[in-house]
Amino acid sequence: MKRSRYLLADYQWVQARRAENNQPAKLYYDQHYDQWPVNQNVALYDMRDGEELDDSPFMMLRYWLKEAPQMQHVIVVKEAERNKVTSVLHFWQLDQDQRIHLVPYLSTDHMRALLTAGYVISNAMIFSDIFVKRAQQRFINTWHGTPLKKMGYAMPGGVMASWNVLRMLMMTDDLVLPNRYTADIFARDYRLSGLYPGRMVVNGYPRNDILAKPLPAPQAKTLAELLKVGSTQRVILYAPTWSGDGTTIDGQAQELDTYYQALTALAKIPMTRVFFRPHPYFKAAVKADQRFQPYRLPEQLGTNDILTRTDLLVTDYSSIFFDFLVTKRPIIFFDSKENYQQMRGQYLSLTTLPGPYTRDIDTLKQLATNPVAWQAKYQQQYSDFYARFVKLDDGQATQRIVKAIQEPLPPAQHAQPSVLVNGEDLTAKSFTRVDTQLVTNLAQDYDVSVGAFEQHLLDSWYGKQFFKAVDAVQAVSRIFINRDIVGQALTVSAARLAGRRMVGGIRFDYVIIRQAAFSRHQQMLLTTARTVIMKEQGERAAWLVKLGFSKLRTQGGYEVWQVAADEKTLSATQHLLNKLEEVE
User: Fold this and answer.
1) Are residues 268 and 178 in the same domain?
2) Which topology term describes how it sits in the membrane (predicted)?
3) Which residues face 202 on adjacent strands?
4) For residues 568 and 548, is the Cβ–Cβ distance under 8 A?
5) For residue 472, how many other CB atoms are within 10 A of its CB?
6) Spatial distance between the Cα atoms of 292 and 260, rounded to a whole number of angstroms
7) Smallest Cα–Cα separation from 307: which of 293, 327, 292, 322?
8) Which of 36, 276, 467, 542 is the most buried (most CB within 10 A)?
């Protein structure tokens, strides 16, 4: 019965994946992967998969337009957001610039630009699982804020919520981060430490340049006209974050009600204009809800454009408050969510925040009515936060970042050899207690990752086993997820591309396979290895020969394979073989 239920769920999963709208684009991308040369005078910008034109990538685009006139700029745009993106360009008087090209999201033009742009720039993770950075490309990821709420493996459901973030970060050449605090979190909670081959560029945030120096006069004039704020009115911006754990969006209606109650309370304060900036995950719901009409912002205004005119910020755990520190204006922390700290958690204690914290709407209104009454109380904490988080935001961050990404990357150096252990589908049959113990033992001397196949997850029988295995190893390893679907037989080139896609282009010193059976998943996994240690298996051995490997030795039922014989590596391999024997 369980087997039948699994087969049905497996079939349904495959059909659903094949119906995803990115599959034709992915096929086109893969078919043309090595066909065209990379053009170093082209930059492609992907901000939240074509849903916005804002943030640090847009600051870099504007800088390049002035400083590198030969560059062409390709912006990925979802059709539903084209008018908004066009209005943003108009706000910045760039809508007639012939060097800027808009391409529809997942179109063939998008895929061709993604393959040929010398620079690929994102502020998130490029949510689709298509992109695999080519050797001649420079991938710059500016992320989208300093985290207060927990991220990556530190949050509930973090392994599955982070699989695409992890592989995208591993491909990133320049990870642009605003401060050392954020860099430490990424190194730890996205498991970059020990394997990441790129460079963290801690040099301030380009998007905050407009907060450190005046907005250009034409944009300042247009901003005033769009907001229609009187000269004596204060502007309050309410900008809550999303409280999800990375896997679901729950309780939306309840949160919208709370947002509306807070806005109406703030709007009762005399001589005040109140605006609302919801998290992108709530954008559609807010747009459809007419209650929020009085508080909506013109769509051509970026978040930090609005902050230049904001007198008081109200937020909860959103990273927007870190940016707002640059202005040295007051912040109120209003938490509308039940048990948020238990659901998602945060890195910093509420008692250390640079402003008052409340969960009561009446108290929120009282605090917002007269900030002067409490600002002195939080002056030291505000100063401490400013020094810790935004001291590099001096108005020159964009210039420094653009200069940095022109420099060659230093070679990656890691203290421990890297090992990728095949997890197959992480069920009790394919990933036993022996495998769990092996990962734990290896972590004492190696940087350890696990490669898992996602397909069985939607079946609860397999899913429970999967997450049990995840819980057993995630503290000492990182987990790469293979989202491949069964299709045509894999060629060597297709397997290499799929392997790079799964692990973000990483080449592991060792790949270990204890499973007796051979699989499509392993065909991809093996392409990421320098040395393979595996149980003897004929089909797997034949595949390794196709990949250019040669068998070097056999010991205790395990074979050692390498592309090029290396006595030093072979000697080191003995240590791994001993580890395997210890857990058998």
Assistant:
1) no
2) Peripheral membrane protein
3) 177
4) no
5) 18
6) 7
7) 327
8) 276
Give Cβ neighbours of residue 222 (< 8 Å, ≥ 6 apart): 91
What is the mean pLDDT, run by run of 10 residues, along the chain of 584 residues?
56 64 88 97 95 96 97 97 97 98 97 98 83 96 93 88 92 97 97 97 96 95 94 94 54 83 97 93 86 94 96 93 98 79 79 95 97 97 98 97 94 92 88 94 96 69 75 94 82 96 96 95 97 96 97 93 79 89 86
| C-alpha torsion sign, points 351, 353, 356, 362 | negative
HSE at residue 191, side-chain half, CA atoms within 13 A, is 27
* Same structural domain, 346 and 366: yes
Q: C-alpha distances in angstroms, 439 versus 359, 432, 433, 442, 579?
A: 43, 11, 10, 5, 10
> Contact at 8 Å (CB) between 130 and 114?
yes
In the chain, the amino acid numbered 414 is H
Using CB atoms within 10 A of its CB, is residue 214 exposed (0-12), middle (13-18) or buried (19+)? exposed
Reading the block at residue 348, the tokens are 């910093």
Which ranges of 108-177 does DSSP label H, i.e. alpha helix? 108-116, 158-161, 163-171
User: Is position 412 within any domain?
Assistant: no
Please indicate, yes or no, if residue 342 is contained in any of the structural domains: yes
Say if 413 falls within a structural domain.
Answer: no
Name the residue range of residue 175's domain.
2-208
283 and 152 inside one domain:
no
Signed CA dihedral, 80, 81, 87, 93: sign only: negative
Residue by residue, what is the 3-state secondary structure of 501-554?
Answer: HHHCCCCEEEEEECCCCCCHHHHHHHHHEEEEEEECCHHHHHHHHHCCCEEEEE
Q: Which two tokens stand for residue 355?
A: 């402003």
CB under 8 Å to 279, separation ≥6 — which residues?
240, 241, 242, 318
**Kind and range of the H or E element at 237?**
strand 234-238
Residue 288 lies in a domain: yes
| Residues 378 and 490 occupy one common structural domain | no
Q: Which of 208, 239, 259 is the last residue in one of the domains?
A: 208
Which of 151, 105, 99, 153 has the alpha carbon at shortest distance from 130?
Answer: 105
Q: Is the dihedral of CA 148, 152, 158, 161 positive or negative?
A: positive
Q: Does the reported pTM lie above 0.85?
A: yes
Q: Which of 23, 71, 73, 69 is nearest to 46 (CA)?
A: 73
Q: 549 φ, ψ to 5°?
A: -85, 155
**In contact, 61 and 45? CB cutoff 8 Å:** yes
Q: What are the residues whose beta carbons fall under 8 Å from the beta carbon of 341, sequence distance 6 or more?
A: none
